[in-house]
From TrEMBL:
It comes from the Bacteria. Transmembrane segments: none annotated. GO terms for biological process: molybdate ion transport. The lineage of its organism: Bacteria, Bacillati, Actinomycetota, Actinomycetes, Streptosporangiales. InterPro entries: HTH_17, Mo/tungstate-bd_C_term_dom, Mop_domain, SinI_DNA-bd, Transp-assoc_OB_typ1. One of its GO terms (molecular function) is DNA binding. This is Molybdopterin-binding protein. Gene3D superfamilies: 1.10.1660.10, 2.40.50.100.
Length: 142
């Protein structure tokens, strides 16, 4: 079974090493010391932890209607580029280490209030990307 060092767990989870150490110190994530004294996390335990965390995060951030969606791949991030054409728009979102680019109608991009610096979520289902923004939910950030 593979095992991972704290830095590898951090990279896989998209968080800092300090966050992983806090998870371990608080008992949320099990780790053992290897022969060199470094903390390591069992791969199966990490997979279970990440599944539970994703499920908890999804439950906390979605209303009950959206939880019925079959789309499970959500990339919450910052809009880094918007190119508005006459009919279509290209929207780029940076979600941690992931860059997601979506093509949508210009009308949809405008209606969602997508602009560089705004927060949005790319929802990926197969080859389709659905984009949500906090602005479309009545939440506005300064």
């Amino acid at each position: 079974m593979p095992s991972f060092r704290i830095s590898e767990v951090a990279a896989l989870a998209g968080v800092s090493g300090d966050t992983v150490r806090r998870w371990v110190d608080s008992g949320r994530l099990d780790a053992v010391r290897d022969g060199s004294g470094r903390r390591i996390v069992d791969g199966a335990a990490l997979a279970a932890f990440m599944r539970e965390g994703a499920d908890a995060e999804a439950g906390a951030s979605e209303d009950s209607a959206r939880r019925l969606s079959s789309a499970r791949n959500r990339f919450h991030g910052l809009v880094t580029d918007v190119v508005l054409g006459d009919v279509m728009a290209q929207v780029e979102i940076q979600a941690g280490p992931h860059r997601v680019v979506s093509l949508m109608s210009r009308e949809a991009a405008v209606d969602l209030g997508l602009e560089v610096g705004s927060v949005a979520t790319a929802i990926v289902k197969s080859t389709n990307v659905v984009v949500e923004s906090d602005a479309s939910k009545g939440v506005h950030h300064a």
